[in-house]
Amino acid sequence: MEKGLERVISILKKQDIGKFDIYAVSTEGYSVEIKNGSVEKVKVPVKKGVAIRVIVDDRLGFAYTRDTSDDGIRIAIECARENARSADPDEYELSMPAQSSLDFSLADENFKDIPVDRKVEIAKQLEEKVRSMDRRVKVVRKASYSDSVTRVFYYNSNDHSFSYETTSFSLSVMLKAEDDGDSQMGWDFDVVRYFSRLNTDVVAMRAVESAVSLLGAEPIKTRKIPVIFKNVVFAELIDALSAGFLGNNVLRKKSLFAGKLGFEVASHVLSIYDNPHLEDGIGSRPYDDEGTVTRKKAIIERGVLKNFLVDIYSARRLNHPTTGNGIRAGIASLPQSGVTNLVIEPGALSFESLVRTPEEVLVITDAMGIHTINPISGEFSIGVSGLLLREGTVIQPVVGCTVAGNVKHLLNNISEVGRDSRWIGNISSPSVLVKELMVGGV
Questions:
Q1: Domain named Metalloprotease TldD/E central: which ranges (predicted)?
Q2: pTM given for the model
Q3: In CATH, what class is 2-211?
Q4: Domain spans of the chain?
Q5: pLDDT digits over 279-301, tens only?
């Protein structure tokens, strides 16, 4: 791949192009699904491609290709130039050389040495452990293992270049539990950077618990009640809100937080950081996807909105310092402002202490429709299930309820943040307690 990148650079330098950058990615991996102890599905994906941006007379042109031959590259360059000719003039900049402070590897050096038989075995182990953990587990829909290694290369006309490699490994399982005529679905997953950190026991236990804990569940009466968003659910909530932190959406006036920089937007117990320098963070990287060196920065600190996450273009338009958050959705996309790792700072309370804080509390363990939160007004109404507790003891499992309100109110009424942080993809979140929310039931 690196030799191919050198060819692209050579071709571009011979042409009359003022500024350019090249982003190249190659990914390969393996995935397997197990059902009833047998291999159900296997995939061995291999992808590669090159994305090219050119700036001609302050006009941006973009093209990409998965054909990395000389002919494929020449065609992509010509397409980028043609696209620049038809674009409106604007002021575009490319990143300048800077030294990354990332001081650990992002890849498992043993990736290529893991035998396929071992990958299949760990998926089978996950299914077996789920089946043996509780007699009420009647069906395991699927147990899966997957991995990938991604290599990233970048070069621009400022003679700024870098490359790095990342790996990820994941497990997931879906099951059905039955008891006394009731049935509930359960699932769980885990994503790690190093193969040795995969833990089938933990994934199996969480998946089984997510189902059996809801057996016999019923709606509760409609009322206002303290609510705990379990770490998994609060991570999903912050993921849905994260679009509001992005400079591109602030420019388009599609952000709940537009115009709030420097103001309180949440309870003082809430702090959220974008941190690309965490060893466990799947979104960690030394540079963003347009070559800017990455760094940790506060988004919300003690309730105050401190930063938007910006790429070079939105940083200039917003008169905001660059943050190293130019992220591409894929090889076919231009870099735009995005997140690396979102980290909600944990508090002091264990989950056991958190549930005992109010006399009565609804612990939300699953939510449906979080993606429907209005990104501008903050209004939401989501379906939830979980557990009703009184003085720390489970009174009843709960399904068929909704939680409605406004995100602004929710964030400002967080009273406690737990210390039970868990990674959900590139988001690390603990459980949080909200003083009171309207829960719709019967």
A1: 110-215
A2: 0.95
A3: alpha beta
A4: 2-211, 217-442
A5: 999 999 999 999 999 999 999 99
